Amino acid sequence: MVADHSDTLRRLAAGLSLVAGVVHLLVVPEHMAEAWEEGAFFLVVGVAQIAVGVQLSRRPTPALIFATIVGSLGMLALFIGAYTVGLPVGEHPWEPEGLGPMVVGCKLAELALVGVLVTLLRSPARAR
Question: Which uninterrupted H or E stretch holds 65?
Fold first, then answer.
């Protein structure tokens, strides 16, 4: 029964990472039009989140889980900066971004991913 719980958490984490990755890939053209560096950043993040999602669906190691938690928290911190005071880079430095439903959905997926991964990391059956 514990293994089933761990499997459910793994699948949920994989799905959340895939959702965030797809959203980041969907906004690449918009950000590429503003500055190629922004577009490249969203491309790399999207591909990485999809790759992590695939790996989480298989047999994630504690190192992968921990790195994904750290990376997701980093993305959330970047989001807070970008949407409150703005970032020092891009077409409009230090101007906060505008919120939209896709952004909110992506950040909720990343926040939920962190919660699921913390739970999975603490699970004794995570390797199964």
Answer: helix 62-84
